[in-house]
Amino acid sequence: MSELPPVSTRRPVPDDMFGGRLKGSYLLDLEVVGVDEITPHVRLITMASSDLVGFEYTPGQDLLFAFPDGDLTLRRRYTIRRSDPAQGVADFEIELHDGRGPATRWAAKAEVGEHLEAIGPRGGISLRPTATSHLFVIDDSAMPAAFALLEALPAGTPATAFLVTRHGAKSRPAPAGAPASSLLWLNEAEMLEILSDLHPAAGTAAYIFGERHLVRTAEELLIAGGLDRDAVASKAYWRRDQPNASHGEPSWN
Ligand SMILES: Cc1cc2nc3c(=O)[nH]c(=O)nc-3n(C[C@H](O)[C@H](O)[C@H](O)COP(=O)(O)OP(=O)(O)OC[C@H]3O[C@@H](n4cnc5c(N)ncnc54)[C@H](O)[C@@H]3O)c2cc1C
What we know:
Blueprint: E1 11-12, E2 26-39, E3 42-48, E4 62-69, E5 72-79, E6 82-84, E7 89-95, H1 102-109, E8 115-122, E9 133-139, H2 143-152, E10 159-164, E11 183-186, H3 188-196, E12 204-211, H4 212-224, E13 232-238
Parallel strand pairs: 9-10, 9-12, 10-11, 12-13
Antiparallel strand pairs: 1-2, 2-3, 2-8, 3-7, 4-5, 4-8, 6-7
The site of flavin-adenine dinucleotide has 28 residues, from strand 5, strand 7, helix 1, helix 2 and strand 13.
């Protein structure tokens, strides 16, 4: 790991950038200091920077990275899986999906010493403090977010996670401290079958992140099962057969 520059270059996103939409976020210069294949379809990329020293964010938040793509740079969002703000280090789990966009192509070949620009923290979803139990419905792209949120729950808080994956049960390391019984590894058909017959208890907060169609369907099923719309936090992370837009999310149309 190369030595961090002593002075942070972190600076607020200027008001005239992105039409002021990224107010509260910072421009960051990050260096890859570790690359680990935690499973054949996920690379754990560890980034370090003096810009990350004392960097504040809430579990589940992410960074908007600029990835090289020929002569262009394209932006994609990745969740901060964990961090050590004292050391200025943060981990990201990037799925090497078959679509192979610019982010995936970069991650497949990423090497220690490379630099990426990023903007963050991004994202407004956080744990619902008044909930008496927590329900996650997520796919592979959102496991870093769900696992960071699960690890942030006070010990013993009732929580269940439906982990929709094409890679089988236990296909990546589980969140620290989460009882194995709270994690259900499912394919999409199994998830739909369970949700069609699920009636969440009053006081449950639901978090639904992942592919756009999956998110919409899961949200509809949970609301049909009696969950209050206000108790659902949902976000599309990607859209089948379409690259994400320049703001790092599926296009809005
Ligand atoms: C707030 C937020 C946080 C996120 N955090 C993470 C994270 O921590 N880890 C993570 O791996 N992803 C995460 N994602 C999802 C990731 O940003 C998208 O999957 C993104 O589209 C990947 O960019 P790309 O350049 O590889 O592919 P793109 O250029 O966007 O897409 C190229 C092709 O690949 C397909 N594709 C895109 N993503 C996937 C996928 N996940 N599975 C299968 N096919 C796909 C598209 O449909 C398209 O056909 C997050 C997204 C958001 C909005």
